[in-house]
Amino acid sequence: MRIITTLLFLLLASPVFAETWVCSWLDDNGENFNDTYIRAANGFDEPRDGDALTFTWEIVYEDERVLVLHSTTTGNSVGGYFFTSITQIEKQGENRFVQILISPMNPVQLTTEGECVVV
Fold first, then answer.
1. Torsion of the alpha carbons at 56, 62, 65 and 68, rounded to the nearest 10
2. What is the DSSP code string of 81-110?
3. What is the pLDDT of residues 17-29, one digit of tens each?
């Protein structure tokens, strides 16, 4: 019994490390951007504009190979727009990512591609 109690204590007392993905991409003008996804209790948070905004990402699917995130943002908190984004991060190999942003207010769908690293 003492061994089980000790193992349980060690398991519960071990530190929990936050997982952070930094994904880099180039815009049409060749300017480099970084998006940071920080694992939170219910998915991932993405701070923007010097931490003035934080977008919340729901985990749609995750295994050892891929991470798929979803976010829908309304204009209620961050301006007059509404959009839905899907982000897929390859967790092995080249760590590529693709993000697709769609909005009913804008007929253009934006697709962003790049690479991610875990920091």
1. -40
2. --EEEEEEEE-STT-EEEEEEEETTEEEEE
3. 579 999 999 998 9
